[in-house]
């Protein structure tokens, strides 16, 4: 059961929403509070343990955008729906940049609200998978090293456990529709591919180097690898804004391709200049710097394979010029790829 709070300084829209049949039809939702005083909003949300907040604008868009930003900064896991009376690009854009999960225009129908809630459920599902998978990745360190076994089996076991956990949660039947399940399945398949690639690379290194390395040293290397892998995953998990998260996820998933800003633009169906501008404004970092960081993090993982030439590492993450790759790598890490590889032998 998800808990909903409506924030409406004039109470009129909140009252209309409260009287909708929507609440009786949707057994998975509960309207737990209506708050008129914006000075008490945070207290209300914490007391009511809200999962979803509907903020109604009353011809005071600037103040309400500021309120949404204020809530987002303090309650990063909450989902925010902004209900306004203006569908202009700037108003909608302002709402999303502030951290709103959705923007609805008055007059509000039950169908609009139902669709917005369904979209939010997709977000709940994605968040669930990200959190579960991060835990599973950390738990893999010992299992993979000690157990050996088939890469497919390891990945399938992780994903099956997530499915099993999901099935035991309350979100399964009522909350997650078929469309959402399909989307989450696609997300898991993407992660499975990434895990397979990573595990295969490491198992190859392990098998080839076993005769010349001690078990403890190999174990230390694997732990460092997984710490690095977790770091890559977290780079886009930390991007709270839904749009920015979507862009960041695309970069991480496609990091082994010759990825450019133009490629990302085509991949997420957004203008290049818009991506750069919004990423800087919302995430606080330059998009090219973010993309470079992800590539260098991936390069660190690849460099642990001593059989892989630096030229191959550079090419894998999209650098045709090895000298330029080395220059970028050094600017980010303080050492050249060769020097970094030497530190791994310590």
Describe this structure in words.
By secondary structure, this protein is α/β, with parallel strands linked by helices. Helix content is 66%, strand content 8%. The chain has helices spanning 12-18, 22-25, 41-48, 61-74, 89-98, 110-147, 151-168, 178-209, 215-237, 242-253, 261-268, 272-283, 287-302, 310-316, 322-333, 337-343, and strands at residues 2-7, 29-35, 52-56, 79-84, 102-105. The chain has a five-stranded parallel beta sheet with strand order 2-1-3-4-5, sandwiched between helices. Helix 6 (110-147) crosses helix 7 (151-168). The longest helix has 38 residues, at 110-147. Mean pLDDT is 72; it is low at 144-149, 165-181, 202-215 and 235-240.
How are the elements arranged and paired?
Elements: E1 2-7, H1 12-18, H2 22-25, E2 29-35, H3 41-48, E3 52-56, H4 61-74, E4 79-84, H5 89-98, E5 102-105, H6 110-147, H7 151-168, H8 178-209, H9 215-237, H10 242-253, H11 261-268, H12 272-283, H13 287-302, H14 310-316, H15 322-333, H16 337-343
Parallel strand pairs: 1-2, 1-3, 3-4, 4-5
Helix pairs in contact: 4-5, 6-7, 6-8, 6-9, 7-8, 9-10, 9-13
């Amino acid at each position: 059961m998800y808990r909903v709070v409506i924030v409406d300084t004039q109470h009129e829209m909140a009252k209309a929403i409260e009287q909708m049949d929507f609440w009786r039809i949707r057994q998975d939702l509960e309207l737990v509070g209506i708050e008129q005083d914006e000075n008490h909003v945070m207290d209300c949300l914490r007391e009511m343990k809200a999962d979803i907040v509907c903020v109604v604008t009353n011809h005071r868009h600037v103040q309400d955008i500021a309120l949404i930003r204020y809530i987002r900064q303090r309650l990063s896991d909450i989902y925010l729906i902004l209900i306004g009376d203006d569908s202009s690009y700037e108003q909608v854009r302002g709402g999303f940049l502030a951290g709103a999960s959705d923007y609805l225009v008055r007059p509000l129908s039950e169908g609009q609200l139902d669709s917005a809630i369904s979209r939010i459920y997709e977000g709940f599902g994605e968040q669930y998978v990200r959190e579960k998978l991060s835990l599973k990745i950390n738990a893999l360190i010992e299992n993979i090293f000690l157990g050996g076994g088939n890469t497919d089996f390891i990945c399938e076991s992780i994903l099956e456990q997530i499915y099993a956990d999901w099935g035991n949660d309350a979100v399964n039947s009522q909350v997650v529709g078929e469309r959402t399940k399909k989307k989450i399945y696609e997300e898991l398949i993407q992660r499975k591919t990434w895990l397979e690639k990573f595990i295969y690379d490491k198992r190859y290194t392990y098998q080839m180097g076993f005769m010349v390395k001690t078990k403890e040293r190999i174990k230390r290397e694997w732990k460092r690898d997984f710490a690095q892998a977790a770091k890559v995953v977290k780079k886009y998990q930390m991007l709270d804004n839904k749009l920015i998260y979507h862009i960041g996820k695309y970069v991480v998933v496609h990091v082994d391709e010759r990825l450019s800003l133009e490629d990302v633009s085509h991949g997420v169906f957004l203008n290049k200049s818009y991506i750069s501008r919004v990423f800087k404004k919302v995430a606080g970092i330059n998009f090219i710097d973010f993309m470079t960081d992800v590539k260098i993090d991936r390069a660190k993982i690849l460099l642990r394979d001593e059989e892989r030439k630096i030229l191959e590492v550079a090419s894998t993450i999209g650098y045709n010029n090895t000298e330029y790759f080395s220059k970028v790598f050094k600017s980010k890490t303080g050492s050249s790829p060769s020097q970094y590889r030497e530190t791994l032998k310590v």
